[in-house]
Fold this protein.
Amino acid sequence: MNKYQGIMLLVGAINLLLILSFPPYDYVSVHTNAPNFDGFLFVFGDHPNRTLNSNFLAIEIFTVLINAAIGWLLLRSRGRMRRRLDRQHLMLLGVALNLLLALLFPPFQDHYVATKALLPSFDGFYFVFGDNSRRVIVAAMLWVEVVFILFNGALLWLFFCQSGPQEVKVAERFATPGDAHRAQVRKKGEA
């Protein structure tokens, strides 16, 4: 583990601490008994008529862990550092950005529809820190969204994978490091 990966672990741990300190809560109305998304409240506070939105909390934790793993992969040590990102690294950054956007703009439905319908419906994507007092997060749809982002990211990661190890000749295998470096410089000069 290098120092950048250590920093990534620290940032991931701080994010998890913040998420667990201010989890998402739903307000449960006495009249309709339907949970409406209320926001992120301090976990040790007094919250009457509110329940923890465990589905959204699980998605938040899952997303932070996946983004920490992506950061871990992006910051791993390599023999020689590249000056620009390759396609696989850009794909990892795209997946992390998509997961972040999926959490900032989750799918919501109107609370009235949620109380009357047997199956969850979809009203639109709204900013999670906006006024969502009359809306309910559709957790099942958000889970599907997160799984599709990860599945598509994994497929594209494999698609952009560089070719496997190349065949090494006997002379290259037993060459000294200086010989290998000179041969590599010659190959670059020929190309």
In short: Residues 3-166 form one domain. The radius of gyration is 24 Å. The mean pLDDT is 80. DSSP finds seven helices and six strands in the chain.
